[in-house]
Specification:
The chain is an alpha/beta fold. It contains five helices and five strands; from the N terminus they run βααβαβαββα. The chain is 34% helix and 17% strand. The chain starts with a strand and ends in a 7-residue tail after the last helix. Belongs to the type-II 3-dehydroquinase family.
């Protein structure tokens, strides 16, 4: 049984301190603990990077070593065609995750390149969205294409 990859993009290492009125007060370490608890025996490979290059490399790793991906690409959601191209190579399920409801925010946050590949999108559930996403990848849910 391959683990679930939970990948986080730029500035998410600042969770709990960064704009708590938007992102809440839960830290990335607390998010990681939630994901590990939700995954149970399946296991989680959990990463955060501020580098587009490294995030793409982690997607490549997940293609070979993982059973699915939960990805919060942060600002790269709206800017990175290279990340979209990497995600298009993933054969397993991909869940795009955003802590805030990106559709209630400024228009620049309304067009996601990642959504073009994602099987599902979770936005606006706060840090709890990570737990929901991990559980969705464990259960044999029909994720729409």
């Amino acid at each position: 049984m391959k683990p679930i990859y939970v990948l986080n993009g730029p500035n998410l290492n600042r969770l709990g301190k960064r704009e708590p009125h938007i992102y809440g007060t839960t830290t990335l370490a607390e998010v990681e603990a939630m994901c590990r608890a939700a995954a149970g025996e399946r296991g989680v490979i959990f990463h955060q990077t501020n580098s587009e290059e490294k995030l793409i490399g982690l997607v490549h790793e997940a293609i070979d070593e993982g059973s699915g991906i939960v990805i919060n690409p942060a600002a790269l959601t709206f800017t990175s065609l290279a990340l979209l191209d990497a995600l298009k190579m993933v054969e397993g399920p991909v869940i795009e995750l955003h802590i805030s409801n990106i559709h209630k925010r400024e228009p620049i946050y309304h067009r996601s390149y990642v959504s073009m590949r994602a099987n599902a999108v979770i936005a606006g559930l706060g840090a709890y969205g990570y737990e929901v996403a991990v559980k969705a990848l464990i259960r044999p849910l029909p994720l729409a294409d």
